[in-house]
Design goal:
The chain is mainly alpha-helical. The chain folds into 2 domains: about 50 residues, no CATH class; about 140 residues, no CATH class. The strands form 2 sheets. It has a 3-stranded antiparallel β-sheet with strand order 3-1-4, with no helix packed on it. Helix 2 packs across helix 3 and helix 7 runs antiparallel to helix 9. The radius of gyration is 22 Å and the shape is globular. The relative contact order is 0.11.
Length: about 270
């Protein structure tokens, strides 16, 4: 499969972008030419595209920049060594770390966390269950929506330092198992995770079970009781505290953890 490159000048003004002559000329001869033709009415457009035409005409002033740059997201991840991603459309979210040198596109959901604890909470079963329950749907695929899934998902409120360490260690072990298996299995993560549907011993299945146990312990949940009911109760508890201006544990490493950098390792998808 041929490599595809994305040209991203960020928020650079035109002269700075033009200093990258080859990339700038390519964008000028493709993007700008098309936008000018649309603005001049040279390209026939249907009724459904008229609003987009108006939007493109308004963008002629900064035609070399991305149409939807997601400035806040880019600003957040560039401060990190890596960040968490998962496919925006999936049956079951599988998370991975990506180097902050790589700019994400619209196919992935971005989480501005670089630590193993946050990765573990996102990859744990409570978050997967919340995703399946709250997500949107696109045909047969589930769609990760930050507004309905992440923004409403309650994080552990009373996790101890030891419990945080155990979650982080389980997350690292899970990624280690995946990395080792991917050296031998063709088809990437999709093929690897299909092995979970088969009976018999499976190191990936065991690693997920260990992570789930660590995450449930960090929450203080009873594994023998309805997990969704416990999550909903915690969600309501957190919402009430926020309404009453009380402190809650926000997403990410809790403030009571002594050294958050200790939870940051260096494995991730690189360029």
């Amino acid at each position: 499969m041929p490599t595809r490159w994305v040209i991203d000048f960020g928020d650079s003004e035109q002269l700075t972008a033009a200093s990258h002559s080859a990339a700038f000329e390519h964008v000028k001869n493709t993007v700008l030419v098309k936008m000018e033709k649309i603005a001049a009415g040279e390209i026939p457009r249907g009724d459904r595209e008229r609003f987009m035409d108006q939007f493109l005409r308004a963008r002629l002033g900064n035609w070399w920049q991305f149409r939807r740059a997601c400035v806040d997201t880019i600003s957040a991840i560039t401060k990190l060594s890596r960040y968490v991603v998962c496919s925006r459309h999936t049956k079951k979210p599988v998370f991975e770390f990506m180097s902050s040198r790589i700019r994400p596109d619209s196919a992935v959901q971005v989480f501005a966390f670089e630590d193993d604890y946050s990765f573990g909470i996102l990859q744990g079963f409570p978050h997967t269950l919340w995703f399946i329950t709250k997500c949107g749907k696109l045909t047969e695929r589930l769609r990760y929506s930050p507004e309905s899934v992440f923004d409403t998902f309650p994080w552990p409120q009373t996790a101890t330092v030891k419990q945080i360490d155990i979650v982080a260690a389980a997350a690292r072990e899970l990624r280690s198992v995946r990395a080792e298996a991917l050296l031998k299995i063709k088809g990437g993560l999709r093929a690897l995770y299909r092995t979970l549907e088969l009976p018999g011993a499976n190191r990936l299945k065991e690693a997920h079970a260990a992570l789930d146990t660590a995450v449930l312990t960090a929450y203080g949940f009873n594994p023998k009781k309805d997990l969704l009911a416990q999550l909903l109760a915690l969600n309501q508890e957190v919402a009430t505290k926020i309404e009453n201006a009380e402190l809650v544990a926000a997403p990410g490493v809790p403030k009571n953890y002594p050294d958050a950098k200790k939870l940051v390792t260096n494995d991730c998808i690189k360029i």
